[in-house]
């Protein structure tokens, strides 16, 4: 199956798609341009920020959590009002990257060096109003998502081609063991980027440079792939009335003029209907 274009606006680095379950509306970001985007029926919406923004969560019908390179921000959709939830000091040359709400109401997000310096990144968790660092020594942390049975969190280190899995405490949602390699895609030359799980526990993962979102079962077995008319797929999300539509962001970053002429849809958001059975993202509890 090949995904269709959902929104034709061109993002330099599209990321962080989030289907708001109470509004029935998709939100996403363009990291490098510091832009929050949305589509509400035929209406195309956009809001500018004064820093790079990279990931989103929903708090309630009116508010989003926006992850920027300098702060976690409570954003009111209808008014554009912003309030700092927590300031971030990630270090010189660093920015945030991937992120997703966990089933306990926390929010996991990652950092990386803007020049992708090896092992400079980390993964953090916002919980009870505090930011805690969970893992370090990661170059480009992606694919943050959670199994529907609450047993595991997943994350990737993209340059290594690895997706890791870590057991979680069922009460607190904190890691209860050391991460282990769940998928090693390096031998296939695949670059794991953003990911989401479906209601059956399958992992849907965008593979940067491969023009696709690939699906793996809870044992790590490849099931199938959804083709996307853009080489640099960045992150998937389930949405739509039945959560059966797979959305996927893409990017133009790193492509030269010839590449862009050959793949002019790079940077758009794509959608494939009826491909799986997703679930609503949990709300973030501040």
Mean pLDDT: 97
Which residue ranges are poorly predicted, with pLDDT under 50 across at least 5 consecutive positions? none
Number of helices: 1
From the coordinates shown, what is the CATH architecture?
6 Propeller
Strand content: over 45%
Could you spell the SSE succession in H and E letters? EEEEEEEEEEEEEEEEEEEEEEEHE
Using the CA coordinates, give the radius of gyration.
17 Å
Level-1 CATH class name: Mainly Beta
How many individual β-strands? 24
The main pleated sheet reads as: 4 strands, antiparallel
Distance between the termini: 39 Å
What is the percent of helical residues? under 10%
Within the largest sheet, what's the order of strands? 1-24-23-22
Fourth-tier CATH superfamily name: TolB, C-terminal domain
Which term fits the overall shape?
globular
The number of distinct structural domains comes to 1
According to CATH, the fold-level topology is: Neuraminidase
- Classify the secondary structure makeup into a structural class: mainly beta
Give me the secondary-structure topology.
Layout (H helix, E strand, L loop, with lengths): L3 E4 L6 E7 L4 E6 L4 E6 L2 E6 L4 E6 L4 E6 L2 E6 L5 E6 L6 E8 L5 E7 L7 E7 L2 E9 L2 E6 L5 E6 L4 E6 L12 E5 L6 E7 L5 E6 L3 E5 L5 E6 L5 E7 L5 E6 L6 H6 L6 E4 L14
Antiparallel strand pairs: 1-24, 2-3, 3-4, 4-5, 6-7, 7-8, 8-9, 10-11, 11-12, 12-13, 14-15, 15-16, 16-17, 18-19, 19-20, 20-21, 22-23, 23-24
Would you give an account of this structure?
This protein has one helix spanning about 255-260, and strands at about 5, 15-20, 25-30, 35-40, 45-50, 55-60, 65-70, 70-75, 80-85, 95-100, 105-115, 120-125, 130-140, 140-145, 150-155, 160-165, 180-185, 190-195, 205-210, 210-215, 220-225, 235-240, 245-250, 270. The chain is mainly beta. The protein has a single domain (about 5-270), classed as TolB, C-terminal domain (Neuraminidase, 6 Propeller). The strands form 6 sheets. A 4-stranded antiparallel beta sheet has the order 1-24-23-22, with no helix packed on it. Strands 2-3-4-5 form a 4-stranded antiparallel beta sheet, with no helix packed on it. It has a 4-stranded antiparallel beta sheet with strand order 6-7-8-9, with no helix packed on it. The longest helix is centred in the last third of the chain and has 6 residues, at about 255-260. It is globular and about 45 Å long. The model has no long low-confidence stretch (mean pLDDT about 95).
